[in-house]
Amino acid sequence: MIGRRFIALAAAALAATPLAASAQDYPPQPPIGTPKPFTVPASETYVLPDGMQVTLIPYGLAPKAVINFRVYAGGLNEADDVWLSNLTAQMLREGARGRSGAQIAEAAAAMGGNLGLGTSTHETTLTLNVLSERAPDAIRLISDVARHPDFPASELERVRQNLLRNLAVAKSQPQPAADAALATAYYGADSPYGRLFPTEAQLKGYTLADVQRFYSQNFGAKRARLYVAGQFDSAAVRRAIEEAYADWQPGPERLVQTPTVHPGPRVVLVDRPGAPQSTLRVAFPAPVAGDPGDVPFRVTNALLGGSFTSRITSNIREQKGYTYSPFSAIGYNPKEASWEFDADVSTKVTGAALKEVFGEIRRLQKEAPPEEEAAGMRTWMAGTFVLQNASPIGLIGSLSERDFHGLPANWLESYVPTVLATTAADMQRLAKEELPLDRVTVVVVGDLKTVKPQLRALPELRRVKFETVKPFG
Fold first, then answer.
1. pLDDT of residue 21
2. Same-domain check for residues 179 and 296
3. Same domain membership, residue 399 and residue 308
4. pLDDT computed for residue 16 by the predictor
5. Are both 405 and 291 inside the same structural domain?
6. What CA–CA distance (Å, rounded) separates 68 from 130?
7. Is the four-CA dihedral 199, 201, 203, 205 of positive or negative sign?
């Protein structure tokens, strides 16, 4: 591994040095400056006659441009046909307008990039990062793939087999099992948000006609957005967009569905007899995107578990050695959000690790953090936000999040000031309001004969119903 090789080389270099510099030979670390406001680059958003929205963002100095196409068609649109959106998306780049999948890849490579594809609950995305002068060509190539897929029958089985392998790998690992169990418990088995994986029989049963039906019912101009960011000839890009997209069929309006949640208290268990580790998930509802408490709760999350120097990480990784990479994050859906903590811990300390997680939540609820700690988290959050938006693809990510949730136009500009205005008292208050332990959902995947008694001994879980599930049916 690169990291280990670097460490070995560094150690050899130190061994060859007659006198190593001592810590006092170095000047003191300079103080951290006050984060600067983030200014969103000027952009232009307009709507084509067919209803597709376009955002152009001249940005940066490198002679490259990112073309990012998004259509609001994903798992939410599948009904009971789980992963049909994935299968459809993978088939998009297997052939379009008479070009084979290999020819599409070659065309992208000739422009200096490669055609990236992504799928999620809400979206299918196509992305090309190309040399500036090839931006119009990239726009046309993405249009061909998104608008004129050939769906070659000869490629269907190969694509299906790739997805079947992905499904088999997921079913063999504890982390996907924990994710599936949590989604079903939290959103319900009948919700598209609660179904992460199909059965093998489902995936084997999808036909080319199913793929074509999903595409025709869900892809169209009214559900699509195109972002172009970087250095590019604006006039040439606009012409290419109008030629490639202006005559697309409008198609259906975007489907928006706010999930119904089923918060705890609840403990969901998945048995893996003999497993040396337990996979943990801890979840609570969180402030929705754009609410007054949204950004302050993001700062609270960073302090609690969402950064490498967070309290939970310091406790169960650095001090206790229970796990290597614990983390917490906030997930957002339309008008719904959830806070989730994830970790893989040794089986014998499963209960102890959860005790510490609960303890850190209680500590923050009882006492506001010291100002120095709170200020450090504010600075870190503000700085990482500016850094993540320092590239065209990062900026597109932030703009698309704003647009997806229908946030105000100035949301990005207001982010850093809101972060910096979050007080230690705000963090304490939000921990109380948003993370009440009597509403916790806990998922544990592990050796239940060893783990269950540990969980039963925790005061927070003594009166909570335990249920054992099979996450993949």
1. 45
2. no
3. yes
4. 37
5. yes
6. 11
7. negative
- Over its C-alpha atoms, the chain yields an Rg (Å, rounded) of 25
Q: Each residue of 31-57: pLDDT tens digit?
A: 666 777 788 899 999 999 999 999 999
For residue 377, tell me if it sits in a domain.
yes
Is residue 5 in some structural domain? Answer: no
The encoded tokens of residue 302 equal: 């960073």
- Beta-ladder partners of 268: 443, 467
pLDDT score recorded for residue 206: 98
Per the structure block, which two tokens stand in for 27?
């000047």
What's the total number of domains in the chain?
2
- The segments of the chain whose pLDDT lies below 70 read 1-26, 29-33
CATH number of the domain encompassing residue 385: 3.30.830.10
| Residue 16 placed within a domain | no
End residue of a domain, out of 198, 215, 245:
245
Beta strand 53-58 pairing with 224-230: parallel
Domain contains 35: no
**Distance separating alpha carbons of residues 276 and 453, to the nearest angstrom:** 16
Per the structure, the complete domain to which residue 457 belongs is given by 266-468
In this prediction, residue 442 carries a pLDDT of 98
The pTM assigned to this predicted structure is 0.90
Q: Which residue has the tokens 């990510």?
A: 397
Write out the two tokens for 114. 């490669």
Q: Residue 443 has which token pair?
A: 């998922």
